[in-house]
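In the previous chapter we treated chains in isolation. Here, by contrast, the input contains three separate entities that must be folded as one system, with a combined length of 842 residues.
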Amino acid sequence: MDMVQSEKLIYEYEKRDEEGNVIGMNRAIDGVDIDIPEGSFVAILGHNGSGKSTLAKHMNAILVPTGGTMWVDGRDTKDPMELWNVRQSAGMVFQNPDNQIIGTVVEEDVGFGPENLGIPTDQIWKRVEDSLKAVGMLEYRSNSPNKLSGGQKQRVAIAGVIAMEPKCIVLDEPTAMLDPNGRKEVIRTVQELRRRKKVTVILITHYMEEVIDADQVYVMDSGHIVMHGSPREIFSCVDELKRYRMDVPQVTMLAEELRKKGLQLPAGILKTEELVEALCQLNSNT
Amino acid sequence: MIRDITIGQYYPARSVIHRLDPRVKIICTLLFLISLFIQRSILGYLIATIFLGMVIYTSRVPLKYILKGLKPIIMLLLVTVLFTLFLTREGEELFHFWIFNITDKGLNISAYTAIRLIYLIMGSSIMTFTTTPNALTDGIERVLHPLNRVKVPVHEVAMMMSIALRFIPILLEETDKIMKAQIARGADLESGNMIQRVKAMIPVLVPLFVSAFRRANDLALAMEARCYRGGEGRTKMKPLVYRAKDYLAYAVIVLYMMLIFFVGRFVPFHIWIF
Amino acid sequence: MSIKLEHLNYVYSPGTAYEKQALKDINLEIPQGEFVGIIGHTGSGKSTLIQHFNGLLKASGGALYYNGENIYGDGYNMKQLRSQVGLVFQYPEHQLFEVDVLSDVCFGPKNQGLSSEECEKRAREALELVGFPEKYYRQSPFELSGGQKRRAAIAGVLAMRPSVLVLDEPTAGLDPKGRDDILNQVEHLHKNTNMTVILVSHSMEDIARYVDRIIVMNQGEKMFDGKPKKVFSHYRDLEKVGLAAPRVTYIMHALKARGMNVRTDATTVEEAAKEIIRSFHD
C-alpha cells in the first residue's frame, strides 16, 4: 500500500453564526483521492482556502474524515487505536516557526518528540544529535530558539520531527512566514533530507518554485484536486494555474509569453538553464 | 531586542553551587528560610550570616548583583522597620518625640526583622542566580512529584511553567508590536488618569489575548503531532540525578540546621533577643 | 509635502550590553507622490528606518523634516504626524480588536478627534478603497479570512487620510492572488490620489513591478538609491548582501553571456519578453 492514500475523502464542518447557531455546512474537502508512494516527494499546491492545509491535517490525524477514508502507512486514521501510530509515522512541520517550538533550548526541543515516545535517555541524545546534524543546526544545539532566524527555527522544527524517525514528513506551508533566504534554507534542508534518509516528503505550499523537484504535484481548489501530474506537466498549463489563483515562476511565465508571441519553445520550462538553452538553440537555428 | 532579556536573574558562572542538582538548591533554600525564623539569638544570626556568606562566596555571583536584588523591596523594608520601631511598646523607652516612642526592644526587633527580610531575599536570589529557569521547573516537578498521589497534576503544571517561560519573551515582543501599531493609528497610551489609561490599553490587550490563544492552539497541535499525551510513559532527555556533591550539600545543610537548632535550645535565655 | 532625513542615526539600547547602531548617517529625501521601494536583508535597518517616518522611534542623532518642519523640534505635534504618515506594519491584522470591522477602522479617525459621523464616513471610504465587501462591515474582525482581515487592517490606516502610506511587507503570508490584489490596490491608490507610497518588501519581482525608485539598506546604511533598472544592474553587489535581482534580470544576463544580443536591464517579464523578441527579429 502507499505511504498515504485517501479514497473519496470528505471533510465537513458546521458553519455557525454569531450566536453559535448552525447555519450550514462547509465542505472544506469534497471527495479527494490521493496516492502518495513511499519514498516519493509530493507537493500539494493551492491558494489559501483551497483545502490543502485541511487535507494535510488529515495525514497525521489532527482531523479525521467525515466521509471517505484516509490511510497512513496502511492504517485507517479514523481508528482511535491507531491514532498515535499514525502520528508517529507521519510527522508534521507547521507554518509558524515560533508556535511549534516547545523547548527553551534547541536540543531540548528536538528531544521533546523522543521523550514523548518513551525512548531511553541515551538513545534520545543520539537521535537529537543525528537530527540536528541532518538539518545542519548542530552547532546551535545549546542556543535559545529566540535568537534564531525564521529559517533556522524551521530547521529545528524539522529536526524535532526527524528525531521521531517517522516514515513520512508532512510540511504544512513551512515557508509561508519566512523571507526569501529563509525559504531557500528550508527547501535546501528538505532536499538534503531526501537525499540522506529516503523519507517520504509531502510539501504543502503556494510557492511554485518550491515544487520543481517534486515527483508529483497536486493542485487543489475549493476542496477538490483539480490538477495532478509531474511538475513539468503542471507548469505547462499556465492559464489554468492562473485560474486557480496560482502563480508560475518568472521563468515559466516568460517562456509562456514568448510562446504566445510566436517563438517555438517547449512547454513546461521550469528552470532558467532550460529557457536559456532553448532560446540559444532557437537563436542558432534562425 | 526584547527577546534578549532572559527571565529570572540567572547569572552564568562556573561554581559548585551552579552545578548542584536543582532539587538540592530548592530544598536547601527552603530550609535556610525556615532557619531564619526558628531561632532568635545573636549567635544564631551570626551562624546564618556566616553560612550565607560562604554560599555567596562559593557561588561566584558578585555581591553587587545580589544586593541589587534588594532594590525592589527597599520600600517594604523601610515601612516594616519603621512600623516595628515605633509601634513596639515593651522595653525601656529610649527616645520620645510627639506621639512616637522608641524602645530598646523596639530597636532590637526592628533590626532583626530587617535582617530576616534581607537574608530571605538574598537566600532566594542565590537560588535563582545559580539555577536556570528550566532546571528550576524540572526541580520543582520532581520535588512536588509525591503530590501526584493526591491528584495534583504536577507534570502538567511543570509543563505549563516551562511553556510560559518559553513564550514570555515572545509575547512581550508582540505586545510591543501591537502597541506600536495602535500608536501609529493615533492611540495615546501615556496620558490621562488611571481610568483613561486602562481604557487605552484595550486596543493592546484584546489583540494580545487573541494572539496568545492562537499560539496556544497552534502549540497544542504541534505537541500532539509530536505524540505528546501527558506525563504517562514519558522519558527524560536530561533526568535529574544526584551526585556526590549533592549529598555533600545535603550534609552541610543538615549540619547547619542542627547548629541553629542547638543554639536555639541551649543558649542561655538572657542572651535571647526576643 | 515631503520627507527629508539628514544625517539620521539610531542606536538601540544605548549604554547597555545590547547596544546596537541600527541606522548610520542616513540622508534621503522623498518628494510627495513618489512610489518608493525599500529593500534590505533581515536586520539591515529597514523596519527601524520606516518607524522614524511617523515618529514612532526618535533618532539618536540627525534631523527628520516633514514638509519642511523638523519633527524633533519643540512642541511638534507627533500625533498629527502619525495621521499624515500612515504606517502599516507586517501582519497588520494582528492589530484588529474592535467588535466589528467598521468600528475598528473608525479607531484611527476617532483618535484624530473627529465626530462619529465623520469617522464612519472615512471608515466606509477606506474600506471601499481596499475593496472590502460591505456585507462584512458589521462582522467581527476575528471571523474573517486572512486576506479580508488584512484589507480591514490597511483600511484602518487609510481611514486617517494620510498623505504618505508606508507598508511593511504588505503581502507577507498571502497566496499569489492575494499578493497581486493588495499590490494592485496600492498601485491604484497611488495613481489616483498622488499619495506617497513607501513599500518595504523582500520580493524583488514585486518591487520591480510597482516602484519608481528603490532604496537598498545594508547594515544600517543606504547602499543604493535610484531607479529600479539602475539598482538591479548591481545585482552582484546585491547578492553579496543577501539580496538578488528579479529572476528575469538573471535570465537576460545569462542569454547575453551565451552570445545573444540582448539588453540586460529588463526587470519585469513583459520587458524581458519584448527585448528577447526584438533581438530575434534583428
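Residues 6 and 27 of chain C are 5 Å apart (CA to CA). The mean pLDDT of chain C is 92. Compare these points with the single-chain example from earlier in the chapter.
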